[in-house]
Design brief:
Blueprint lengths: L1 E6 L3 E7 L5 E8 L5 H19 L4 E6 L2 E2 L6 E2 L11 H9 L3 E5 H12 L7 E7 L3 E7 L2 E2 L37 H4 L1 H13 L11 H9 L3 H25 L3 E5 L8 H9 L11 E4 L6 H12 L7 E2 L2
Parallel strand pairs: 1-4, 4-7, 8-11, 11-12
Antiparallel strand pairs: 1-2, 2-3, 5-6, 7-13, 8-9, 9-10
């Protein structure tokens, strides 16, 4: 049995998978925000609950909103800031009394879809999360590619390729730079873009609709929403075109809230050929098969497919 844990900013989700990938047990609990020790206790209790329901002991893989620094072994780049600078892998393994494997949550998403999801059987998979933020992960021949600095797939903090005049220098990003892909392609970025155009850049609405509402308005034929989605698709095509030029994936899988916008799967590939250095583009753009469950399933599969040392294989 394989247990996967997805440590999010507001909830911790756990799943126990059988050898065939079937769900034996699934449960979620609130995340003890700003509480490092409490987060560890919550995971330990969650694992105990999953094992109690499933009636078996399992391996444990954990997806985190950050990564382990190869230089220090401590957590870095985590949205859940109370994890940063802490030996989370060692502490969790000690508390559980068994080895654990850790990976970035976007890597877990990509691994899930490459293992038994929308990209099953593909040699090279790029998994994209477009939601509150913009993350990515790379899987090659069924194995997560973390990279020498444990940041492989972090396309959201590259500059938006081929920026137009009205896209320079771009919105400020929490990473300290301007014009990152995330500042154009996240859900809040779409809302901000729509609101600025609808209300005029000098006086945008204080509370613009979210991406789902904008997509619904576009489906109803609203011109401002249609124009907003067209801009979004063009930017996504540029950003993914640069990924294709770099790693040439067989499949790009979209997850996160914005992945539910159906028109992306037709319109973005129709646009990205302009930005890909090839006579044709055979890369497929697909929606995640497992939806919101992909991250936690991928954490469980860390023990099936294995992961490189920088994903955080720790022995208690």
């Amino acid at each position: 049995m394989r247990i996967g844990i997805d440590l999010g900013g507001t909830k911790i989700e756990g799943v126990a998978l059988g050898d065939d990938g079937g769900v034996l047990s699934r449960h979620r609990v609130p995340t003890p925000r700003e509480d490092y020790d409490g987060s560890i206790r919550a995971i330990v209790d969650l694992v105990a609950h999953l094992e109690g329901v499933a009636g078996a002991r399992g391996t444990v893989g954990v997806g985190i909103p950050g990564t382990i620094s190869p230089a220090t072994g401590l957590i870095k780049n985590a949205n859940s800031t109370w994890l940063i600078g802490r030996p989370f892998a060692e502490d969790l393994a000690r508390a559980l009394g068994r080895p654990v494997r850790l990976a970035n949550d976007a890597n877990c998403f990509a691994l899930s879809e490459a293992t038994d999801g929308a990209a099953a059987g593909a040699d090279v998979v790029f998994g994209v999360i477009i939601g509150t933020g913009t993350g990515g992960g790379v899987v090659v021949h069924g194995r997560v590619l973390p990279g020498a600095n444990a940041v492989a797939g972090e396309w959201g903090h590259n500059p938006l390729p081929d920026p137009r005049d009205d896209e320079r220098p771009g919105p400020a990003c929490y990473c300290g730079r301007f014009g990152c892909v995330e500042t154009f392609l996240s859900g809040p970025a779409m809302s901000r873009d729509y609101g600025a155009v609808l209300g005029g850049s000098s006086d945008p609405p204080a509370d613009p609709p979210d991406a789902a509402e904008i997509a619904a308005r576009a489906d109803a034929g609203e011109p401002a929403a249609l124009a907003c989605l067209a801009r979004y698709e063009e930017r996504l095509a540029r950003a993914l075109g640069s990924v294709i030029n770099l790693i040439d994936p067989d499949v790009i899988v979209l997850g996160g809230g914005l992945s539910n916008i159906a028109r992306l799967y037709l319109n973005v590939p129709a646009r990205w050929a302009t930005y890909v250095f090839s006579d044709r583009v055979d890369t497929r753009l697909v929606r995640a098969m497992h939806g919101d469950a992909s991250g936690v399933r991928g954490a469980a599969w860390l023990w099936e497919r294995g992961a490189a040392a920088t994903s955080g294989k720790i022995t208690a």
